[in-house]
Amino acid sequence: MSWQTYVDQQLVGTGHVTQAAIIGHDGNVWAASAGFSLKPGEGKGVCANFADPSKAFANGITVSGNKYLAIKADDRSCYGKRGAGGCVTVKTGQAVLIGVYDEKIQPGQAATAVERLGDYLIENGY
Questions:
Q1: 30, 52, 102, 111: least buried by Cβ within 10 Å?
Q2: How far, CA to CA in Å, does 28 sit from each of 49, 50, 96, 120?
Q3: For 59-96, how does the pLDDT look when each residue is reduced to its tens digit (9 = 90+)?
Q4: Rounded CA gap, 126 and 117, in Å?
């Protein structure tokens, strides 16, 4: 399965994430949903939050030009909130998954969708 297929079917296709991307640990985008892009430096910033989770709490999580207030951050997952929406980022062995959700989606549903794909990729060596 291609990285784009994971984004389209396993993230956005669940209906629990409105936009998504998969990036490498270097911050480069491997695949993204239609209309979703990271601004220069955002991918590296997302990845840096896993190395030092305190940065997420101090600086927030910036994805696609939107800054989210960090509500959870550790070396595997960082969750951010912005109004009634938010973002979920999950680190695997080779990639970082980014899912964004809006006010129509429950935060727990979005987190489950992204974390589940993260678990699958880790179990399969990615």
A1: 52
A2: 15, 16, 10, 21
A3: 999 999 999 999 999 999 999 999 999 999 999 999 99
A4: 11
